[in-house]
Amino acid sequence: MNPKKQQILNAAYMLFINKGYNPSSIQDILDEAGVSKGTFYNYFGSKSECLMAIMESIGSEIRQQRLAAALGMLTNDPEVLAEQLYIRIKLNLEKNLFALYESIFYSQDPDLKAFSVKQYTLEMEWISSRIIDVFGKEAAPYALENAAFIHGYVQQLIHLWRLSSSEELPAEKLSAFVIRRLQASVTLQIASKDSFLKNVKLPSPTSAEAVSIEKLSSLFEAYTEKLKRYPSTQQLVYFLSTEIVADRPRKPLIESVLTTLANDKIIESELSVLVEQLWKHVAIMK
């Protein structure tokens, strides 16, 4: 990411966390970042755009860390899912995301509302697809319900912990507990065929199953145009675009590139989504 843009995002993030989103003005952001109004508007059209960019950046960091935790592991391992959930909980707490989510929830800005729906959809779809990875295709009719279960369970248990304890939340323990409860819930639903959200689908599919390897290849190739200022990353992304559609893709090389990208700090949200989608295809490569 452009250093000046990152400087503005860092300043805005600190203001939104410490002062609140609504009380913070664009002038506050300019003063905190030490930049001119013109510089701000080079990157953002509004304060809400700035908040959305912060959330996108943190979302990208979460996806990269989830990928790094899963590379080389089996997609159906519940412990991998527990580790990925732990990453989400840990970063939510470290970045104080609950305060930022609250800003969006109470905002009347239509762009922020639409952004919130998109982010929620992405997260529910990701959790749903991982539930199917872990429990198999027979869990598919119940995956979305259980994604909601995970999402709500984590939030409410965090709230209860904060109300009842002054100790630091044991995030790793929490994620392991939630996945154990998920295993019991999914197993029971598969056996009883009991479902509330029958035939309900989210507005836009984003799971790895919804994107073919050929489509990913073309998306990676197209994305290289956005990486002209970062030739090393551009070269890696172009390599993926060609290697994944080769007659005999070299899985170790692809995994090595994915590992590098999972730790690349300049990666933004769109590319991190593609990289995470590719992981699931690579996991089943011979």
Automatic annotation (TrEMBL):
InterPro entries: DNA-bd_HTH_TetR-type_CS (IPR023772), Homeodomain-like_sf (IPR009057), HTH-type_Tx_Regulator (IPR050624), HTH_TetR (IPR001647)
Residues of the HTH tetR-type domain: 2-62
GO molecular function: DNA binding
Keyword DNA-binding in annotation: yes
PROSITE patterns linked to this entry: HTH_TETR_1, HTH_TETR_2
SUPFAM superfamilies according to UniProt: Homeodomain-like (SSF46689)
Pfam families per UniProt: TetR_N
The keyword DNA-binding is assigned to this record: yes
Record's keyword terms, sorted: DNA-binding
Residues of the DNA-binding region: 25-44
The protein's name in its UniProt record: TetR family transcriptional regulator
